[in-house]
Amino acid sequence: MIGRYARPTMQKLWSDDNRYQRWLEIEQLAVEAWEALGAIPDGVAHRLAAASVNAERVDAYELQYHHDVLAFLSAVSETVAPQDAKYLHFGMTSSDVVDTALATLLHEALGIVLAGIDALRGTLRELAWAHRYTAIMGRTHGMHAEPTSFGLKLALWWLALGRDQERLGRARAAVGVVKLSGAVGNYANIPPFVESYVAKKLGLEPAPLATQVLPRDRHAEVLTALAILASGLDAMATEIRHLQRTEVGELEEPFAAGQRGSSAMPHKRNPVKCEQISGLARVLRGYVVPGLEDIVLWHERDISHSSVERVILPDATILADYLLQAMNTVVSGLTVRGDRMQENIQATGGLVFSQKVLLALVEAGMTREAAYKVVQGHAMDFLSRGSPSFSARLSRDPEVTALIDAERLAQLFRVEPYLTHVDEMFRRIGIEDGTAKP
């Protein structure tokens, strides 16, 4: 991933230096296991603990070998005595090292992503709580529907991110397994003890069964979970973008001091961060299909997945981390215009309260079909003619006033009833006031 969309912690995690260091750690742990079995001389593991690896040396050898693991082993062997170096990679195949290291890197990377989700959920929870009674126009098909709570909109995002946490937690567990079972996965040249020993030292579990490689449905699950997360963040960004449009003006993403919105139009304050989130979510979603195709390998293993994963697995986790941080920046600095929300609720002259009027007429004795015809007739007439307002039209209709008095009719055009059950809904999903926690 280009540096523009990568945070330093993730960049360092997926660097060549760190990857080779992880390979070396696995090789050293395997030697410890062999020594514990008494299969190699005592003291080898202690001496190999001083081994080191240099990425430039690995690159130099790879130019000759065209094989990165062999290049790595040659580079490491330069740093230790030959009589000890011969026990590196003892009984192992390349994928034992590569897949196990990849599992540890993904496990760590997903831990960072999960922490980012937790941070964003915390920001959303506080904002949702603060705006649980802030009325906003609910929209269906992009059209005004009925008023709702802005806090509920935020709570919905908070809840979705909770499901993302669950999905990623499962995917993290699925991919976080150790594979040290040899060339076709049957432990012909390396006993299961070595795998179990290394797994315990790494804090992971041994894979129950593998070929030369771990089955790639594990990695596809990670990519799918990350893509769903990205789509959720895209949904949030898209909603904010819609509500920031000039004609709506209810929200605005942060606009920093000195920031400029357009090279040509000095007045512009564009939702660029949300647009960036939407754009990068498309990139992340694009990794799902290659991940699914990597599941299909020839017999006990081919190498068609390898080049793909070098790109998509680091990039997917790096992007997910970046997108979470970007959205947290947007949400924590979001400008919420409650006054504009009220203006938009009233912008259609009370049309958005039509269902309240419909139900009141039915409760008062009118049939639903007749009530619907009366209410829709006034609504359509107002939309085509304008004034008088929808509520004024109803107050002059003898069919309506015969069943609903003026005071009751006025009550039907209040926003407060649409917020009646907000507290109950917040309790049901488990959102609490963050300031009330010890």
Structure, described:
- The chain has 438 residues and is mostly helical.
- The chain has 3 domains: 1-90, Fumarase C, Chain B, domain 1 (Orthogonal Bundle), CATH 1.10.275.10; 93-255 and 265-348, Fumarase/aspartase (Central domain) (Fumarase C, Chain A, domain 2, Up-down Bundle); 351-412, Ribonucleotide Reductase Protein R1, domain 1 (Orthogonal Bundle), CATH 1.10.40.
- The chain is built from 20 helices and 6 strands.
- It has helices spanning 8-13, 16-37, 44-48, 55-65, 68-77, 82-85, 94-130, 150-175, 192-202, 217-244, 272-285, 288-293, 304-332, 338-346, 354-363, 368-385, 390-395, 398-401, 406-411, 422-429; strands at 135-140, 143-149, 177-178, 205-206, 251-252, 335-336.
- It has a two-stranded antiparallel sheet. The chain has a two-stranded parallel ribbon with strand order 3-4. It has a two-stranded antiparallel sheet with strand order 5-6.
- α9 links the parallel β3 (177-178) and β4.
- α11 (272-285) runs antiparallel to α13.
CATH topology type of the largest domain: Fumarase C, Chain A, domain 2
* Overall pLDDT score: 95
What is the count of β-strands?
6
Which descriptor suits the 3D outline? elongated
The CATH H-level homologous superfamily of the largest domain: Fumarase/aspartase (Central domain)
Percent helix among the residues? 55-70%
* Number of structurally distinct domains: 3
Structural class: mainly alpha
State the low-pLDDT regions, or none. none
Tell me the span between the first and last alpha carbons.
40 Å
Helical element count? 20
Question: In this structure, how is the largest beta sheet organized?
Answer: 2 strands, antiparallel
What is the CATH architecture annotation of the largest domain?
A: Up-down Bundle
Compute the gyration radius: what is it? Answer: 30 Å
Spatial ordering of strands, largest sheet: 1-2
CATH C-level name of the largest domain: Mainly Alpha
Percent of sequence in beta strands: under 5%
- Which series of helices and strands comes N to C? HHHHHHHEEHEHEHEHHHEHHHHHHH
